[in-house]
């Protein structure tokens, strides 16, 4: 390991100790906008907020029976993979899910086990799919979170609906959004790492590909021939390969479970890996981050990490 890498490795844990909690704190109610900005958005720290959307009818309404009646015939985008890992590294490829148009009822049939299908099914299309594909459900919640919109001075860029099987996993990545993740039913299990851990998180460049189910039921990986290579994280935080990625020993992951009726504030640029209970339903709000001096400092850290790890 060269001198630059050694300095980054030594500095990272010290930087984290300056501002990070050892666990994800809980708030017992919706915060005041200015206080939330000062305590959480500005410092870029996650928290779990209870009772923040207890007034949403969705918490009591969104049973399988209600959803079948309300939107059962609606056609929606569904991600299908052989193993539950969509948008993840598999060997030397970055593989995206096969995307199918299916009726909402047919997805519920699979989740409830009344219909057997090959693969793992997950409603996870992150293009404001709640507003675009399921507008009938908007009256059961809010199209934005008022105190967050006030704190940031903007409306969310996207409102996404999530429903899937227990085997559906979101591989570790980061997003340029201030994220409010609301669990309606079931549980979500998060592994979180702060942006300051970037020197310890490995990246690679991978050929883009997509899963495609064949007539016999097996899945084939099909390359996206004309696409650029995708930078992605090959490490699985559930079973990290410390021989291959020894620098990850210095990372400081935080683990938390977000239960029904709870909201996770996931700050911009935090790395996260997500699992869920079977049939978990969630809605999240993406607010575009500010591309301010903190973003520029992170870009500097990312560049230094790439130089150090590339030459170590």
UniProtKB/TrEMBL annotation:
<keyword id="KW-0560">Oxidoreductase</keyword>
<dbReference type="GO" id="GO:0005737">
    <property type="term" value="C:cytoplasm"/>
</dbReference>
<keyword id="KW-0539">Nucleus</keyword>
<dbReference type="GO" id="GO:0106155">
    <property type="term" value="F:peptidyl-lysine 3-dioxygenase activity"/>
</dbReference>
<dbReference type="GO" id="GO:0046872">
    <property type="term" value="F:metal ion binding"/>
</dbReference>
<dbReference type="InterPro" id="IPR003347">
    <property type="entry name" value="JmjC_dom"/>
</dbReference>
<keyword id="KW-0479">Metal-binding</keyword>
<comment type="subunit">
    <text>Homodimer; disulfide-linked. Interacts with DRG1 and DRG2.</text>
</comment>
<dbReference type="GO" id="GO:0005634">
    <property type="term" value="C:nucleus"/>
</dbReference>
<dbReference type="GO" id="GO:0016787">
    <property type="term" value="F:hydrolase activity"/>
</dbReference>
<dbReference type="InterPro" id="IPR014710">
    <property type="entry name" value="RmlC-like_jellyroll"/>
</dbReference>
<keyword id="KW-0378">Hydrolase</keyword>
<keyword id="KW-0963">Cytoplasm</keyword>
<comment type="function">
    <text>Bifunctional enzyme that acts both as an endopeptidase and 2-oxoglutarate-dependent monooxygenase. Endopeptidase that cleaves histones N-terminal tails at the carboxyl side of methylated arginine or lysine residues, to generate 'tailless nucleosomes', which may trigger transcription elongation. Preferentially recognizes and cleaves monomethylated and dimethylated arginine residues of histones H2, H3 and H4. After initial cleavage, continues to digest histones tails via its aminopeptidase activity. Additionally, may play a role in protein biosynthesis by modifying the translation machinery.</text>
</comment>
<dbReference type="InterPro" id="IPR041667">
    <property type="entry name" value="Cupin_8"/>
</dbReference>
<keyword id="KW-1015">Disulfide bond</keyword>
<protein>
    <recommendedName>
        <fullName>Bifunctional peptidase and (3S)-lysyl hydroxylase JMJD7</fullName>
        <ecNumber>1.14.11.63</ecNumber>
    </recommendedName>
</protein>
<dbReference type="Pfam" id="PF13621">
    <property type="entry name" value="Cupin_8"/>
</dbReference>
<keyword id="KW-0408">Iron</keyword>
<feature type="domain" description="JmjC">
    <location>
        <begin position="123"/>
        <end position="302"/>
    </location>
</feature>
